[in-house]
Amino acid sequence: MKKGNLFEGGFRSLVAVIVSAAFVLGAGTMMPEGGYVLDNNKVDAAVNEGATGSFIPGTYTSQANGFGGPVEVTLTVGDGGGITEVSVKGASETPEIGGAALPVLQDQLLKTQSAELDGVSGATFTSDAVRKAAGVCIAQANGEEIPEIPTPEGDNLYVPGTYTGTSKGFGGDIEVTVTVSENAIEDIQITGDHETENIGSFAVDMLGEKILEAQSPEIDALTGATVTSNGILRALNDALVLAGADLTRFAKTEEAAAPLKKYEDLDCDIVIIGAGGAGMTAAIDATQAGKKVILLEKMPYAGGNTTKATGGMNAAETHYQKEQGIEDSVETFIEDTMKGGHDLNNRDLVTVMAKNSAAGIDWLDSIGAPLPKVSFSGGATNKRIHAPEDGSGVGAYLVTRFLNKIDELGINVMYNTKATSLITLEGKVVGVKAEGPDAYYTINAKAVILATGGFGNNQEMIVNYRNDLLGTVTTSAPGITGDGIEMAEEVGADLVDIEQIQLHPTVEQGTSMLITESVRGDGAILVNQEGKRFINELLTRDVVSAGELEQTGSYAYIIFDQRLRDGLKAIEKYVSTGITVQADTIEGLAEQLDIDPATLAETLATWNQYVADKKDPEFGRDTGMDNDLSQPPYYAIKIAPGIHHTMGGVRIDTKAQVIDTNGKPIPGLFAAGEVTGGVHGGNRIGGNAVADIVVFGRVASDSAVKYCDGK
Ligand code: ADP
What we know:
Elements: H1 12-25, H2 41-49, E1 58-65, E2 70-77, E3 83-89, H3 95-112, H4 124-141, E4 161-168, E5 173-180, E6 185-191, H5 200-214, H6 226-242, E7 262-267, E8 270-273, H7 277-288, E9 293-296, E10 313-314, H8 319-323, H9 330-340, H10 347-355, H11 357-366, E11 373-375, E12 385-387, H12 394-409, E13 412-414, E14 418-425, E15 428-435, E16 439-444, E17 447-450, H13 459-465, H14 483-490, E18 495-496, E19 501-508, E20 513-514, H15 517-521, E21 525-527, H16 541-549, E22 556-561, H17 562-567, H18 570-577, E23 581-583, H19 586-593, H20 597-613, E24 634-646, E25 649-651, E26 657-659, E27 665-671, E28 676-677, H21 688-708
Parallel strand pairs: 7-16, 8-9, 8-17, 9-13, 17-27, 25-28
Antiparallel strand pairs: 1-2, 2-3, 4-5, 5-6, 10-12, 11-12, 14-15, 15-16, 18-25, 19-20, 19-24, 21-22, 22-24, 23-24, 26-27
Bound molecules: adenosine-5'-diphosphate (ADP).
């Protein structure tokens, strides 16, 4: 990459200020070839230190990019040198969010007489835009000369050089650096290290290519990674403005008519629908068994809800447990699962899962995805949840490794290709109809495996089966819309436990981000707004969720310390997303949460004593008590229940054959993972989703392979 500019490190915030200046000053001097050099510490100082009474009287106006379009700030400095009037406008901001924040920001500006505004939570982009535009106005009112953004020569689009813009993504800052010639974007570098692995990170990897191809910021956000995509496009806009671009030239013209799609026939042994955990497991396993597999994925990326799994995989009698001196048994695993599921589970399916779990762990070892770290998780008698060594979230970790293996085996994964129906012939399932970006497919196969996941992101289906959950946030990925259940029903499949929908007790409501159970497993506690614990935090998810709903405001805070943060990588994402509150003392934390400091301090002291005694006389918690909470800083995240897992689904037998409404297997149709019902009963315990996808993904593959071979 050609790199000529000096916008790095501490200069980054200034880039934004200069972008705003473009709107104020329009045409100006030529930018030096190869980059823009800025010495503008005084502007920065003005942003941070504007002081009453020190400005030059006059009226100053500036604009900056908000969420929906430009936000304009006008300041009037009176004869006394203080800001006497402020106007903040932004007609394109979302009325109820950014729009509502504008008058508040206007007041803040007048009150603080500075661009260092508190901002309005929930309206980050609008707040930032007001800060930027106000910063430029104040710099001007301080008598600073604002550097001018250059105008390209003649009809050229850009002034050649390398320019950088930054913006907020899902997990933190995104930086886009473009290198432009007179009329083209020649190179683009996008960095966004904090984006969710395999979702946002995918957008970071993919969008650069799309932008280069389109030669425009006017491209569609990537489905499922909208926040990251929009962050990238905003940062790109900023960089292009620095290059002298007139963004209105990129406005979309009329959509070109979509070309007609062709029809295509494909053949294989096994079609697998859905490249989540179960689908990828089955695809790898069946390919290893010598079958020709086609894996269909309707999204532009693999992973589904599996990517979001943060805890680990439950497995009993594994070599890791034995090596670490952990006693456990398949029998206890079965009983814990049945008890957790309120005995609604199909015991035969639970037995298959528990018995094959250790082999599942061995299989993961064999494909380069070991899960050696064993700990406690809610509802388990023994240390049974297996996680990656480095503390990273199990889902993203597995998806990356599954994809590596899929590449290595040369499996045909068709992305952006949605299965629309199953093809049947004389009562047997013999293929799948699908639609991709360029073609409609008829895929003929000897067997089909459904691995489309649940329906947590299909509000209509949720409300149809559970009216009481109307409006509840969901942690499900965008593609999890129950397609497999509908396709299976069309060929006569029976459904089981379909109304059993699990709420997860620790979901941050603003972002729908799930706070992994491992945080509690590693020692965190839950407190209510009164600063008190109210439950054994490691009881099953339904019980803890119900406990939270009984507290003031139907929410709680999850509290942990620095030691816990250091041991659990997942927490870094929570911190970089900005959902954690932190303080050096418990009292300081309490103040930020509006909790009585003395009460919270007493709750923590009492809890630490319980940990020392290895006994919780109040709520009977007896797991996740290896370490107390005593190492500052202390952290809190406000959480409440969210829809997490749809436990019901297509009925299968112990061979993962789909069963029809007459109780008979549907020949040629197999299913695994969240699309199925029966394994988890009335409540899934943490760590069993991954056990389900790995074990039943392999069972479905094994049965489909045998079926293909006529066995
Ligand atoms: P599981 O945990 O059971 O493996 P996941 O949620 O991880 O389920 O993955 C299910 C995958 O199936 C997702 O990637 C989703 O996008 C994909 N999917 C859902 N419906 C379809 C469909 N009609 N065609 C192709 N892929 C689908």
